[in-house]
Amino acid sequence: xxxxxxxxxxxxxxxxxxxxxxxxxxxxxxxxxxxxxxxxxxxxxxxxxxxxxxxxxxxxxxxxxxxxxxxxxxxxxxxxxxxxxxxxxxxxxxxxxxxxxxxxxxxxxxxxxxxxxxxxxxxxxxxxxxxxxxxxxxxxxxxxxxxxxxxxxxxxxxxxxxxxxxxxxxxxxxxxxxxxxxxxxxxxxxxxxxxxxxxxxxxxxxxxxxxxxxxxxxxxxxxxxxxxxxxxxxxxxxxxxxxxxxxxxxxxxxxxxxxxxxxxxxxxxxxxxxxxxxxxxxxxxxxxxxxxxxxxxxxxxxxxxxxxxxxxxxxxxxxxxxxxxxxxxxxxxxxxxxxxxxxxxxxxxxxxxxxxxxxxxxxxxxxxxxxx
Length: 372
Ligand SMILES: Cc1ncc(C[n+]2csc(CCOP(=O)(O)OP(=O)(O)O)c2C)c(N)n1
Description:
The protein is α/β, with parallel strands linked by helices. Helix content is about 40%, strand content about 10%.
């Protein structure tokens, strides 16, 4: 496949490439897409700010990759998501509450994970959003396994998993795609080719010209899509999910996009990425492109946008306000959550920890707050 080949429904200027390709989405679905894309952009800006202020330890952003929302909308409620770390817009659009997300950033008693994961490594049971993997690629094998299980159980659930361009060079990429293809499992491998794996550009990452060609090696259907076109992302994932549900096997999707921010709050992209690249990709912004489409449909104007952003910013500020005041997780939580009934050796360790902390004067409070 050539580099310029990719499925596109909206041109970078927001016009339809061909009206016959336009997905039949309701007004509510289009609004849901826009709402989640704007929400995640505002959330990213705020969280990066809080990290710089030292109020949270770490964050990853999805700046420029908000069209990932389309993949979340294309799934059904009981489908499973095995994410990398940039796809929390998928969790948002599938219904993960903002307060749970905020709790996870702060890692306190309002964190559903009680501070056991790195910040920004969400998981949400109710929406089948499995814990974000930090080690590159591990989620691909987990997803293949879950998809094989779904096939055996005949439950018609589809599994989607995500990785970056760097993720396609991992050993788990091979293991995951190979297993899913052998078993014709209902699995979608969604690769966001955002051009960099931290500081390594994609051309130094792999010998192939386009990542979608890797699908061929596994005898898997491959699709290349404009990753800044939310309608195209929705459409290719919907098709892949329909095929998977009908027993037609897995699909590998290369979504061509660009990371418009740092790799994480610990990175400075100006050290390795020429500013011309940022300028060129800014013209393909997924949110602006979608705005033009929505405006033509009578679903967007500047006044509406201003009000929406004010409302969402307020929602974020209220969540920050509420969560940042919460207490640390209870110290007993380090011993809970693994076994249904705490085994005796953990009970001993638990009591020893309380005693030792008391002895050192670190805390004597039996409300069992972490001595942080
Ligand atoms: C197995 C493993 N090796 C190295 C790392 C360190 N690391 C974290 S993110 C990253 C780059 C990943 O790039 P890519 O897959 O393209 O995803 P992106 O961050 O661009 O979304 C690396 C090397 C890791 N987390 N796990």
